[in-house]
What we know:
Arc Repressor Mutant, subunit A, globular, DNA-binding, 10 helices, 6 strands, 2 domains, Four Helix Bundle (Hemerythrin (Met), subunit A), two-stranded antiparallel ribbon, mainly alpha, two-stranded antiparallel sheet, homodimer
Amino acid sequence: xxxxxxxxxxxxxxxxxxxxxxxxxxxxxxxxxxxxxxxxxxxxxxxxxxxxxxxxxxxxxxxxxxxxxxxxxxxxxxxxxxxxxxxxxxxxxxxxxxxxxxxxxxxxxxxxxxxxxxxxxxxxxxxxxxxxxxxxxxxxxxxxxxxxxxxxxxxxxxxxxxxxxxxxxxxxxxxxxxxxxxxxxxxxxxxxxxxxxxxxxxxxxxxxxxxxxxxxxxxxxxxxxxxxxxxxxxxxxxxxxxxxxxxxxxxxxxxxxxx
Amino acid sequence: xxxxxxxxxxxxxxxxxxxxxxxxxxxxxxxxxxxxxxxxxxxxxxxxxxxxxxxxxxxxxxxxxxxxxxxxxxxxxxxxxxxxxxxxxxxxxxxxxxxxxxxxxxxxxxxxxxxxxxxxxxxxxxxxxxxxxxxxxxxxxxxxxxxxxxxxxxxxxxxxxxxxxxxxxxxxxxxxxxxxxxxxxxxxxxxxxxxxxxxxxxxxxxxxxxxxxxxxxxxxxxxxxxxxxxxxxxxxxxxxxxxxxxxxxxxxxxxxxxx
DNA sequence: GCATGTATGATTGTCGACAGCAGTGCGACC
DNA sequence: GGTCGCACTGCTGTCGACAATCATACATGC
Lengths: 259, 259
């Protein structure tokens, strides 16, 4: 039985895309950092992790170099690599870069009057709204980052999407690096609402302003400047993880995928 | 004799920053790609290049993975790595990403009324003007890319600068990948003049518009759509290189540098 | 007691080697 | 004559091993 997607004038077979072992390891490492399985500042024990992944040190080190290039790992000669710390001194640069990417993504969507793109962002926004009703800080944080990635991804620019995927993980690292633990603001949906409104009104400046304001709020939250000013905002804090011995799953070669 | 820069209240010694071997190799590879020593689409012969660099295959492969992450090298399982081809299908995404980064850099400079930043860009612009008087296509191309990097670098955001440094090399790869060879427009200074004017007038929208227009012109030049439309613009073409056997210099450990 | 020097253990950085795969050319077969 | 099959060659992907380096703890001396 032919596959339903088999098209008449389409080429008989699609080009197969085989991910290399290094690809798989790099993805695994990124996920481990994003999920917190690899804690901030923790050294990357090559022999141990290589054993957990079921590979040798060579491909692991090669994959790790990709994350070094992304800024997710830092390497010091003689001391190996550790999960990068995104301290307060880097917050301005990081979130300003996000403003650059996300506001331009919004401008692209608006310039094209791309209804489908807005619908995608709306979907992510709805999910954020539902999640924000609960008190799971991590889930809210995930939905938040998903929203921002969806915004950039909806602009349909592979280059910006790839850069954004790194920015997302770095943002997560900034939260993990915070002295106050993993905290999200309860009013997080409000600033997102401004972004959605800008998109729906096809108002690029309004969307860009909302994004800029949202990033300022994020930096304020992470630096704790709000508490210093005596401003009270309701937040949700994740109970600190046991930081126990994590375990990375072994690399499993996925079935040959078509692209 | 104490160094003149020794400050009274500064820490006695600065933190030393030792570049790792992988750092040096990665820089060497980037330069080789930027200069064209490693031609587009050419496979990365690991044994040969490792021998030229005076290192083993392991650190070379690790360094190469950094360039894979940057998109400067592409890796296919079983076929090793080759210098990436930035074909016409990727031009839109690439230059749109540059618009995002560069226009935001301009906005940052303008928002801060940063005179020193404008002066830096002006310096790069002057150099471009002088170079454009000649007919050395490659030199003009270098000055062009230097200008755009200077613009982003002047915004004083390490994150964006790092991303821009990759975008610069990718842009160079786009020129190398062009079927028409390495070509620069004679009227290249005009569109840059608009950018400079926007900065000097502290007019963010004017600067952003000029940047956007500049990128459109660049894409038009690379896709050859101008010729198709019968529009004639004066260009300078670099005579094709002999494509002879290049040679990468051996890795030399620089003296311990202070950061 | 504090600082300095030393031994130890673990971990990284690098290398050479080997198996396996991909591309190529030749030859056989339909 | 074209297609298929097969051996060959070069290269990659992966591994284990070794030396150099770093961090830690301990001992020594002032």
